[in-house]
Amino acid sequence: MKLVVLGPPGAGKGTQAAKLSGELSLPRIATGDMLRLEVSSGTELGKEAEGYMRRGLLVPDDIIIEMVRERVSQEDCKRGFILDGFPRNMAQAKVLEALGPMDLVIYLDAGEEEVVERLAGRRACRECQAVYHLRFSPPKADGRCDLCGGRLHQREDDREEVVRERFRTYRERTQPLVQYYQAKSILEKVEGLGTIEEISWSIQETLESRGLI
Ligand code: ADP
Ligand code: ADP
Ligand code: ZN
């Protein structure tokens, strides 16, 4: 099963994709996480990507596309995968299409104000990149990751001015993919407002109604 989770920054893509990954035993491919790993490891790719990420802009397609192509060709992707944060523009969508048809695009929708609040409270583990929220999904121990004990931090691009820029980027470059996938009849919109559990249920229902589970 090949799934795409699409939506604005902070809509809950990572949270839901990680849940689904556990439930369906499919790898979650999060391009943002992969890029942050390159940045923190100080690789050439990371150095090239960093400036774009800090400004809330898309990293150039050639970098991203090569990364995804390589990742989906690995053994653990044979049964399928869940893409989180890719594709983010039409060129990426075209490349993905050439790799084979997707079964479903889950479009998680959330408004700008909700998202700004969510991202202001988002904290991520420095070690394993697990995601928390100060109010909506707090860790058991203050400032520490439940999964690995790593230290939690706020992403530099979760500051409000960068979030607004990411939103603008999303509207201009990524939002058009909604119509694109709608026209292919593989898009299902899931309301991103509600608790993490409620949204997870809606996604399960959607997968059932499509005969995917
Ligand atoms: P969020 O889920 O909060 O929108 P991500 O972690 O997915 O953020 O992405 C963080 C940043 O990484 C983006 O703002 C962008 O600079 C870069 N990035 C991630 N995925 C892509 C992609 N598919 N194409 C281009 N840039 C990307
Ligand atoms: P995305 O990957 O789309 O950028 P995340 O999954 O990282 O979004 O979620 C953004 C922030 O909002 C995180 O701090 C997360 O814990 C929190 N969050 C996710 N889903 C919900 C929800 N349904 N209600 C409230 N907060 C949420
Ligand atoms: Zn951790």
Detailed description of the structure:
The chain has 213 residues and is α/β, with parallel strands linked by helices. It has a domain at 2-110 and 174-209: P-loop containing nucleotide triphosphate hydrolases (Rossmann fold, 3-Layer(aba) Sandwich). Helix content is 48%, strand content 15%. The protein has helices spanning 13-24, 31-41, 44-55, 61-72, 90-98, 112-120, 160-174, 176-183, 196-209, and strands spanning 2-6, 28-30, 81-84, 104-109, 122-125, 131-133, 152-153, 187-191. The strands form 2 sheets. The chain has a 5-stranded parallel beta sheet, with helices on both faces. The chain has a 3-stranded antiparallel beta sheet with strand order 6-5-7. The longest helix is centred in the C-terminal third of the chain and has 15 residues, at 160-174. The mean pLDDT is 97. The structure holds adenosine-5'-diphosphate (ADP) (2 copies) and zinc ion. The site of one adenosine-5'-diphosphate has 20 residues, from α1, α2 and α3. One adenosine-5'-diphosphate (ADP) binds next to α1, α2 and α3.
